[in-house]
Automatic annotation (TrEMBL):
Solcar repeat intervals: 41-128, 144-232, 247-348
The organism's place on the tree of life at top rank: Eukaryota
Keyword rRNA-binding recorded: no
Any GO BP: transmembrane transport
Residue ranges that the Swiss-Prot or TrEMBL entry lists as coiled coil: none
UniProt source species: Rhamnella rubrinervis
The protein's name: Mitochondrial adenine nucleotide transporter ADNT1
Membrane topology (UniProt): Multi-pass membrane protein
Amino acid sequence: MASEDVKPSESAVSTIVNLAEEAKLARAREGVVKAPSYALLSICKSLVAGGVAGGVSRTAVAPLERLKILLQVQNHQNVKYNGTVQGLKYIWRTEGLRGLFKGNGTNCARIIPNSAVKFFSYEQASKAILLIYQQQTGNEDAQLTPLLRLGAGACAGIIAMSATYPMDMVRGRLTVQTEKSPYQYRGMFHALSTVLREEGPRALYKGWLPSVIGVIPYVGLNFAVYESLKDWLIKSRPFGLVEDAELSMVTRLACGAAAGTVGQTVAYPLDVIRRRMQMVGWNNAASVITGDGRSKAPLQYSGMIDAFRQTVRHEGFRALYKGLVPNSVKVVPSIAIAFVTYEQVKEILGVEIRISD
């Protein structure tokens, strides 16, 4: 009898253990399922917040963005825009309110994928570069230097630019066309299909080389200056700006504005050449349409170097900085609006990932 009493007890214990193991495995499987799902949800929420922030900030400064592009591609034989205030008044007088925001829809349409690829690429590049740096130095506590941040930012900028370049190319054309242009692109997808059909796939990447070269200092410096300034403020705590290693929103905005100003000033000449090369082969650009609606000879460049040479020879070195003033004027409010909007949307969606993370 004793043995018979023991056997059920052992069987029961074995059953309980098995059930516990199965429950543990089930919870593990559930955790494996939940963890990626939660991470994916957080990433999606962050992308939505960044997309909304980018769209709102770009829309707020859209008139300055359009004027900048018009100044960049303006034909020196047909000068219509002489400055920021005069240029905005001219657009308002000739095209009205819609003219100030022409091309903004396409610009906003590329914000989400561009920001997603850029920030994701920067995060992955930073991790990879930091791991290699720590292995080479033998210091597991080593942190990214400003130069390494520049490299990670350059990688992110190249990948993001290449991934969304066709949208940027047609945005430039949508922005430049006016009501007097004989032929009109009706929107982003119509412009993409028209360029693809009439000029071929390679036309979608006109100006890609100066864009990639320009994005290296631009995005690279943006990330490097922004994060290095924050890192310096947190470690040095000058003038009592930092308390408990937490930067205020105003300080973050100042860091972002400084980073944007440095980056866009260094890379601006390449941006001008990029825009001009994007107009090659298009006879209906605003830069080649005179005030009476007649066409002048369109811009023709054999390549990036030729575009630089012709621009400097015909218009001088200052032409490489056409549109810099409206571009500089929009940097601070654009970054400020983007940061504030991002933080607000992030808080509404319950995202805990910080933009600097």
